[in-house]
Amino acid sequence: SATIKPLVAGNWKMNGLKSNVAEFYKMRAGISDDLADNVDVMICAPATLIAVLAEKAEGGAIALGGQDCHAEKSGAHTGDIAAEMLRDAGASAVIVGHSERRSDHGESDADVNAKARAAWRAGLTAIICVGETESERKAGQAVEVVERQLNGSVPDGATPENTVIAYEPVWAIGTGLTPTAGDVEEMHKAMRDNLENRFAGAGSAMRLLYGGSVKPANAGELMAVANVNGALVGGASLKADDFLGIIAAYS
Ligand code: PEP
Predict the structure, then answer these.
(1) Residue 82: phi, psi to the nearest 5?
(2) Which of 98, 100, 107, 188 is catalytic?
């Protein structure tokens, strides 16, 4: 929809030391006011860097996000991070249900749903990830799998302000492979229909990101697909030149 402002969010995953903060500063400097009028930009940094980057982000166009949160506000959960802590460090959003969390940590749709509600409780936007595996796509089940993940992972009460959906086919993450524009269009239409059935007008206005091997060279084509309202970018968000090249698809 032409009225939805796109979002390009970078996911740094488990990458980034204080010595890499210069790259963030280069990104911030590369986003003109005109560009910022057309596209929202975010970096989902490792939790250890959010407070460091928040200082560098001041006065610029880059928002900050976390990559995961615990469902509870505080307590005896050694090593976990609460949504409230991310917010306190300077984040305005958090990724939940990334496929690497679902596979490395066995997170279920119910877990992701609870984390999304924790994000809202803390005043963060939940970036909820869904996506089929290669074998699920080959079996013709991609749309069915993603709809099941949406139904289970997106809590009641989702709005365009508190929720962003990211479609990330697992087989496209970090592989250099991408679905065809036609396959992306089919999936994003199915997600839009699902969200409109459940949330009416809020479902029409929610941002649907595509993620999986987005690069400057394919960003234009992928971002032009109907119902694609931005990108979630892994590897290509680590270097300012690549990330700015993707953002330029909206200039
Ligand atoms: C991701 O993991 O969110 C992602 C999209 O990774 P990449 O861009 O590296 O495929």
Answers:
(1) -80, 155
(2) 98
